[in-house]
Each structure stands twice: as structure tokens, then as C-alpha cells.
Amino acid sequence: EYAIGKEQLDLLPINNTTNIYYVGAAEIYDYKKINPTLWKVSVNATEPFMLSFIEAYDPLWEAKIYKNGKLVGIMKSFPLYSFINGFLIKETGNLEILIRYKPQDWFELGFAISLTTFIVYMSYLIYEWEKSKGFLRAIIDSKLAKVKIKQPIFK
Description:
Number of helices: 2
Mean pLDDT: 79
Shape: elongated
Order of helices and strands: EEEEEEEEEHH
Largest sheet: 5 strands, antiparallel
Oligomer: single chain
Low-confidence stretches: 1-7, 14-23
Radius of gyration: 29 Å
Helix content: 25-40%
């Protein structure tokens, strides 16, 4: 993992869009790229602000806003400067913002369904093969036949 700099995330006061590095309404005090489709940003805001996310614009990015550990809003991305993602954050105070690429959820769900289906199918094939061939039973019987019992187990 690596940390990214100011060039990836930025805050814009709503009433000042001429200077993208001027931040009077909010301050990012922590951020972490968890993976390419999930970012965690901690912000202290005194008034509503614009969060710019410098990733190629896609309307499927969303920001989940948490305040005191509770979800207070979900914001959809909109094109900022015609090519990057912008999120209008109306909440104030200490906020945790999770920026997530929504199709990743669909991928993870599809992967879980595919993996479950594969495991069930392979289990069924092994069960049917074992039932028809008795392969495991033959191995166990052959191992038991090789064991010489000097004393009877039961009298």
C-alpha cells in the first residue's frame, strides 16, 4: 500500500471555485487508499464543501458520509471540470467519507455466487463419483486388509 498526495483528493469551498487549493471550509486530516475502488477520507468541515476526487469521471463512484459512526448520506459523483469526480458534501463536523466504485460490489457478489456454485458442483461430482465407483471405500478396505491383527478386537 502507498499513500497518495494532495494531487488525488482535494476540497473546494462551495462559494469559491477559482482556487482549487484554497480550503477554508473543510480540511482533510486523514485519507487512505484501501484498494483501487475504495478510499477512506477523514474531513473536518465547518460548512458544506465540494470534495474533488481526481479519477476519470464515472457516474458510478459514490461517497458514503458517516458522522459519529452513523451513515448520514450517500452522494453520487458528478463531473467536476468535465473530467474528474466531484461530491457535494452538505454535512459539517468530523466526517468519515468512503468513496467507493459501485460496480466493485457487483463484481464481489458475482464472485461469491460463482465460488459457491463451483464448490457445490464439485462436491456433488465427488459424491456421485464416489457413489458409483466406491473408490474411497475400496482404499479403506485395502488398507484394512493389509493390517494384520494379532489379537481379535472383540471376543
